[in-house]
Amino acid sequence: MYRVFESLDALVTVVEEARGVPMTANCVVPRGDVLDLLDDLREAIPGELDDAQDVLDRRDEIVGEAEREAEETRTAASTEAEEMLAEARAEAERLVAEAREEAERTLADARHEADTMIADGRQEYEELTERARHDADRLAEAGRAAHDRYVADGQAEQARLVSGTEVVRAAHTEAARIVDTADGEADRLRQECDGYVDAKLAEFEDTLTKALRTVSRGRSQLWKGGSPNGSPATALHGRTGTGMDLID
Predict the structure, then answer these.
(1) How far apart are alpha carbons 62 and 49 in whole angstroms?
(2) Quick check: helix, strand or coil at residue 20?
(3) Would the N or C end of the chain have less CB density within 10 A of its end CB?
């Protein structure tokens, strides 16, 4: 094709540079040069025409081959996409199953730990209550015995003083003092008993509060984790999840 263009350019140059005929638009060109250029064109054009015709003849074949290659590429891409989608779906299902199993194990461990802590708290509560009741009974009994002893001493002292007419007034005064002292001592012992029981109950209340706080924190963490589908875990057996409903 370049050869054809070169021959045409050379022919144009020969015509442009040819000597013109006076009084006419004609010119005198060298015959040999023009003939040589025309021979070059005659030899070059058939080959180019044949190549162009071959391209035109194979146009449908080339287009069909390109379409087949495009269809094969599209089919391969679709198959690969389906395989990747199936693998991704299988991996997602596996991860969801593992997450569900882990959540169930964590929930079971938390429930077991909560039940253990509640049982321990109840046992400690019963032990502390029994010990406080025993100590209160012991202190109350001691207070009553001291009160009775003081009253008896006061009454004896009163009787002794009353037996002497010269010290009757002093006897009444001393007896009243002894009775007041006995009553004060009984009140003091009763207050000490009440204070001891209150202190023991306060210790148990603090222990139970810590246990309930631990249980509530564990259950709150389970609630924050949620169920595998993203929704909050359903409360078990009507429990509220706050930890306060664990003590019946």
Answers:
(1) 19
(2) strand
(3) C
Span 78-115, pLDDT tens digits: 888 889 989 989 998 999 888 888 888 888 888 888 88
Among the listed residues 161, 189, 185, the one whose alpha carbon sits nearest the alpha carbon of residue 175: 161
Is the C-alpha dihedral spanning 11, 12, 17, 18 positive or negative? positive
DSSP state of 166: G
The alpha carbon of 83 is separated from its chain's Cα centroid by a whole number of angstroms, namely 31
User: Are the C-beta atoms of 45 and 39 separated by less than 8 Å?
Assistant: no
Q: Which of 179, 158, 181 is nearest to 168 (CA)?
A: 158
Q: Which residue has the tokens 């003091």?
A: 188
DSSP letters along 46-64, please? HHHHHHHHHHHHTHHHHHH
Is residue 158 within 8 A of residue 171, CB to CB? The reply is yes
Q: 61-65, 216-220, 237-241: lowest mean pLDDT where?
A: 237-241
E strand or H helix at 143: helix 59-162
Q: What residues pair up with 19 in beta bridges, in sequence order?
A: 28
Give the position of tokens 């060109």.
29
List CB contacts of 132: < 8 A, sequence separation 6 or more: 196, 197, 200, 201
Single-letter residue type at 15: V
Distance, CA of 246 to chain centre: 25
